[in-house]
Amino acid sequence: MCGIAGYIGNQQAAPIVLDGLSRLEYRGYDSAGIAVFDGERIRMAKAAGRLSVLEKLTDSGRALPGFCGIGHTRWATHGCPSDENAHPHMNQENTIAVVHNGIIENYRKLRAKLEKKGYVFSSETDTEVLAHMLTEYYRGDPVEAIEKVLHRVEGSYALGIMFLDHPHHIYAARRDSPLIVGVCGEGKFIASDVPALLEHTRTVYYMENEEIATLSDEHIRFYSIDGELLSKEPVTVEWDVSAAQKDGYAHFMLKEIYEQPKALRDTIFPRLKGDRIDLEDLGLSEEEIRRLSRITIVACGSAWHAGVTGKYVLEELARIPVETDLASEYRYRNPICEPDSLVIVVSQSGETADSLAALRDAKARGSRVLAIVNVVGSSIAREADSVFYTNAGPEISVATTKAYSCQLAAFYLLAAKFALVRGTIDEARAKELLSSLKKLPDQVQELLSAPDELSFLANRYLAADHVFFMGRGIDYAVSLEGSLKLKEISYIHSEAYAAGELKHGTISLMEEGTPVIAVATSDRIYPKTLSNIVEVKTRGASVLALTTPDHRDLSQVADHVLFVPKTDPLFMGSLSIVSLQLLAYYVSLGRGLDVDKPRNLAKSVTVE
Ligand code: M6R
């Protein structure tokens, strides 16, 4: 999604803003722009395409001197990616510049009104209405004008604004789109995400919904949308700069795949106190856990896939009925929230628009909401009743890897704890689970030490038009994620099927050479999956199978077998996914694609 960076201080603003934007490139964008106050005017440069085009246009910012500036990377929603539609947008007099993340939903109506009054638009964007509305309401006090505008717009926004009349100020505002304010000595920053600031500061203020901020040489002030002065404390972000850099890896995705053992350790071990799982900070009493009648897991994309595994594990261990729903469906389907039910919202970014809306809906219906979130201080983390933080560290690559793995670990811990409290497993089984959990990071490490086979296998898929994934139970949940990994970064069409479903339709697509990836790690249903593999082989499919060393016989059926070490059957997904992540990575690499920034995608989907 779009990115915002802004700076005011005693250094040249443009290079800092451009650098901030470059740290947000991973979020996905198709044009970029910057506005800087040069002592007399607000000067602007914008360009469709990569940030490098803008950097060239501005001589890496040197062509736009000045100490106060705002910049933007745009992911097109209203109007195609073009120079004109790129942000910032300015009013006709070039006295007000605006960058905006989000969507102004009533912009058509607002635009028609403004056009009637004689305002001339130079872009197709929803954002441009803001620049003209600010002109309409501005009477010398920017905050007052911003308030008036915000009271009239519907939708979501994170805004960075400059007024020529107040040249040493940046104004910011947010509703349902993240925005933070950073401070480091004389320098003050705005950004839509933490990595844009890490080079300069880790001291940040998280803006809440419908808050306005003013940043000047002297101060940072926060106001409510009704003009009330607010007091706010800064927080220190724990992530360090190197966490958001490639550290010698060719891509963030590869680095993040290799960071999984550490991420898992950091998520699992702080939760273990001797032989106990400590979830006290979640504020769920044992009595409440015992009374739980239903759990609904709500999320999008890979986080939803983690939730599919979560359902299997929670139901198996804690014997609580669990449903896993897509947040975009949940929020519009009038869900039933029983008194003793728990809603678990899963999100790496903590800013996904649908997941946030689902959370609010669940709370409004009286449900208790637990969030499994990676980004500290994100909207979902702040609005949930309690938070289970995954400690994956910053995840930059659009394709999630380590955050997904940590979400799985969070579900394992929750399930084991709930099961023990509810008496659905005994102490001996709990010990067994904990012992397997503790070994997981090392087992992932072991898998990562042999990537060559996957790099070699990837060649088989470089020219594929489509790939089918299949599995049963947890192997199916992993297939969903493996398939998404492959399609999102390789652009090869791919679908995952519950293996038993194939013969209800999909098997008609099998023909000579059809690529199938079968995940068959579960001993309990191995014979069933094996039959499905034989069925597709009989129809000519070329099968790559993932299984454990217990099933060497699979080599006689599949074209190629990858062996995954064994762990508790409920945790197998954490190991099989590693091979599928690496496979997707090498296929994308082999096809010469932009691994970290796949086309049309954004890291954090903050609009519907
Ligand atoms: O930040 P979130 O976990 O809420 O994001 C949800 C999805 O957009 C995300 O998991 C997406 O599917 C992944 N980038 C895919 O790799």
TrEMBL record:
Gene3D superfamilies: Glucose-6-phosphate isomerase like protein, domain 1, Glutamine Phosphoribosylpyrophosphate, subunit 1, domain 1. It is an enzyme of class 2 (transferase). It is found in: Cytoplasm. Its EC number is 2.6.1.16. One of its GO terms (biological process) is carbohydrate metabolic process. GO terms for molecular function: carbohydrate derivative binding; glutamine-fructose-6-phosphate transaminase (isomerizing) activity. Residues 2-218 form the Glutamine amidotransferase type-2 domain. Signal peptide: none annotated. SUPFAM superfamilies: N-terminal nucleophile aminohydrolases (Ntn hydrolases), SIS domain. The active site is at residues 2, 603. It catalyses: D-fructose 6-phosphate + L-glutamine = D-glucosamine 6-phosphate + L-glutamate. Keywords: Aminotransferase, Cytoplasm, Glutamine amidotransferase, Repeat, Transferase. Catalyzes the first step in hexosamine metabolism, converting fructose-6P into glucosamine-6P using glutamine as a nitrogen source. Homodimer. This is Glutamine--fructose-6-phosphate aminotransferase [isomerizing]. It comes from Candidatus Eisenbergiella merdigallinarum.
